[in-house]
Amino acid sequence: MNHDQESPAVVDLGEAVRMFHRLVPPDVLHAQKPPTLSTVFTPWVVVWLMIYQRLTCNATMATAVGELARLSADVLPDNKRAREKSFSANTGGFSRARDRLPVEMAQRAADEVSAALIAKSPPSVKGRNAFLVDGSTLSLAPTDALRKTYPPARNQHGESHWPILHLVAAHELSSGVTVRPEVGAMYGPAAIGEVPLSAGLMPRLPVGSVLIADRNFGVFALPG
After folding, report:
1. How many angstroms separate the CA atoms of 185 and 150, rounded?
2. What is the pTM (predicted TM-score) of this model?
């Protein structure tokens, strides 16, 4: 795909961006590494434009940069370039900003959204949040980097083509919101099971939550 080609469809996600702005204020993402005063592609803007791409069926980078020009002043950075919308339509700046974005920043955004939505949901079990917890796997694109991190399955005929990611997810029963899944390798020397993955998931759940899981997780298998 040529990322510099404009997609034909422009989708109005005005309410979605305002909701994201309420759930994840820019200061939350910028606290660790504040952008310069003249930066247009701040971490918050970059995360939103990546969300926009996903919500519009993997829109091109050019379409995402076009969305930047349509954003209202209350969600754009407070600097002269943003106020006057004098930034270039070239995708290079967005591309470089995506490459610089720390993974932890995107994870923080995901955690803030799920925590805010869950906090607004009525508890399901005697004043406590309840979560459905289960494991699954995903087949990933067959790149060398992914195959190294998430080795493919093997059998008597040799190794499969697709890297396999192992994950555990927790869905809040009242809202249906899922917290950010915990992921690891399903196969290979760094393979990790559902119980250890679940332990990594626990800090993202509200204190005192009720967990609903199948017997594969075991009784008293998770730390209190």
Report:
1. 5
2. 0.77
DSSP state of 169: E
Of 48, 93, 50, 51, residue with least CA distance to 74: 48
CA atoms within 13 A on the CB side of 136: 8
Question: How many Cβ atoms are within 10 Å of 45's Cβ, its own excluded?
Answer: 23
Query: Which CA distances in Å does 17 have to 11, 68, 79?
Result: 12, 11, 19
User: Measured between alpha carbons, how far is 38 from 98 in angstroms, rounded to an integer?
Assistant: 17
Q: What's the rounded Cα separation, in Å, for the pair 13 and 187?
A: 40
Percentage of the chain beyond pLDDT 90 is 41
β-bridge mates for residue 178, sequence order:
171
Residue-wise pLDDT for 33-49, tens only, equals 788 888 888 899 999 99
Residue 148: half-sphere exposure toward Cβ, Cα within 13 Å: 3
Q: Residue 146's closest CA among 161, 156, 158, 157?
A: 161
**Dihedral angle, C-alpha 206, 183, 166, 155, nearest 10 °:** -150
Token code pair at residue 128: 């406590």
d(CA 54, CA 174) in angstroms, rounded, equals 25
Instruction: Give the span between the Cα atoms of 67 and 101, in whole angstroms.
Output: 19
Judged by DSSP in three states, 151 sits in: coil
